[in-house]
Amino acid sequence: MKALKIILASLVFATGFAIPALNAQADSAPKKQAHARPDRVKQLTEQLSLTADQQAKVKAIVDDEQAKLKAIAKDDEKRVDKVKAVRQESTKQIRATLTPEQQAKFDQSAKKRPEGAKKGKGKKEKSED
């Protein structure tokens, strides 16, 4: 009986050290950012031939968008509507920095995206034959 108490006490003692260590490890693990699009400025630069000034403006817009989306990710209620609103505002701001020719290419590019991506549902699912 005494041996059982010692084993149980040792187990409780060891668990007391293991749990905080596991929590610390989980906190330091890299987290995938929701809605992260780090290549967006590069993609738009290549697609629309953005000037350096336009790149700087678009980068600031994208950075602001990411900060807002990160804050929204923590709020479960009405998240989809908030994300959609932030993206629409960012698109409007980016479009305002473009020349008319670039705006036409930008608009055309938006039309080419899969329908699911426009609705925030990712890639289109393949239909079964």
From TrEMBL:
It comes from the Bacteria. The keyword Transferase does not apply. Residues 79-129 are annotated as: Disordered. Keywords: Signal. Residues 119-129 have a biased composition (Basic residues). Residues 79-92, 108-118 have a biased composition (Basic and acidic residues). Residues 93-106 have a biased composition (Polar residues). Residues 1-26 form the signal peptide. This is LTXXQ motif family protein. It comes from Termitidicoccus mucosus.
